[in-house]
Structures are given as structure tokens and as C-alpha cells.
Amino acid sequence: MSNQNLTPKQLKILTRIRDLRLANGYSPTMQELADELGISKVTVFDHVEALLRKGALRRSPHRARSLEVDPRFSLPDEAAPGRVPLVGRIAAGAPIEAVEDRELLDVSELVKPGGRLGKHKAELFALQVAGDSMIDAGILDGDYVICEQRNTARNGETVVALIDNEEATLKKFYRKRGRIHLEPANPAYEPIIVDECQVQGIVVGLVRRYHH
Fold it and tell me: What are the structural domains of the chain?
């Protein structure tokens, strides 16, 4: 779906909604969008209504925080093949911090046809890892994990999980005896055991930058 009929302000609001959903796991409110962009809530409301009419945004009636970019819609910063949005940092027990100036991570070698991520058609995003809780799985401090946006996981998959809608962590996912075990890959850390958590994505790739 084309973005040709959107104004620059509408594109900015659409991009911000997409970024905040990726970073937080839920959509921003009108007031949060207004605060983020330094404009009035009325202006945000007008632009959001226009975006809904144009089919770029969709929302579920009677549900808070349900605004999302229509998956058929392509934003300009998603047009470059092989680039995935870098949406923040992730650590054991620490919140994801949204990146203010959106960055893109070039993973063209991984996502090209025949590349290791070529089969992943779902939306991909990247997070920078902080800490060493997954070191035995080969994920080191400072690495970038490439994640496929999904809200379900199978036992043994490495997930980005949101706990209590506040804290995001990178762990191995296991469902045991009705509870969820988020297990580190480092004996120095204890597993996190919860009744429920929100899976935001599954790790499908890893990028490591070497500094000479």
C-alpha cells in the first residue's frame, strides 16, 4: 500500500506509532503521541482520524491502545531491503529504552534470498543486547538480536518477553506445569518464573560488530 497520499506530519505520526508499539509492546495514547511529538492532542487526533480514513492505521473498537499500522502499508524507512528497525536495548530485568532517533540496522546478507533469514516474511526488528545473561547461547553484551515479531512461542525458543507490561527480557521460553519459565543461558542468573508474559518477538538472527 502506497504512502504517497500522506502528509509529512502524518508519516511522522504513523512511524512513531509503529516505533512505540515495537518498543513497548502496546500502542501509545493520543496524549503520549502529543507529548512525544511536541504537538497538541487535538492535532494528533485529527491526523490519526485522517490516517484511519486513508487505511494506513487501524484500531479495534472499544479497546484501549489498539492503534496499529496496517500491515499492508509500507513506511519509507522500511523500503530499503535488508534493513530492519533498531528499536532499543534489552537486558535481563531492565526495560527496553525506545531509541529517540530511529536507526536502521543493515542485515542485507542475512535477509536476501538464500540468506539465513530469507524465509522470515513477518516483520523483523532489532534490539541491542545489554548484559551477559544469554552468553552460553552465544549472545554477548553489545550484540544485536534480529527478532521476528510474534506473540506466541514454542518451548526452547529465545524470546523477547514483556513482564507486567513493564520489563522486557531476552530469555529461553518454556511452559512447564502451567507456568512460564524464562530461562537464562548463564548459570550466574536465576530463571524468571511467571504465570503470564507477553511475547513480543522470537530471535531469528544475530549481528555482531567487530571493532578493530
Answer: 8-69 (1.10.10.10), 82-207 (2.10.109.10)
Strand partners of residue 169: 161
Is 171 one of the catalytic residues? yes
pLDDT along the chain (212 residues), means of 10: 69 84 81 89 91 87 81 61 63 43 56 52 75 89 85 92 78 93 92 89 82 46
Which is catalytic among the residues 66, 119, 121, 133? 133
Burial class (CB in 10 A: 0-12, 13-18, 19+), 31: exposed
Residue indicated by cell numbers 511536541: 38
User: How many Cβ atoms are within 10 Å of 206's Cβ, its own excluded?
Assistant: 19
What is the pLDDT at residue 28? 87
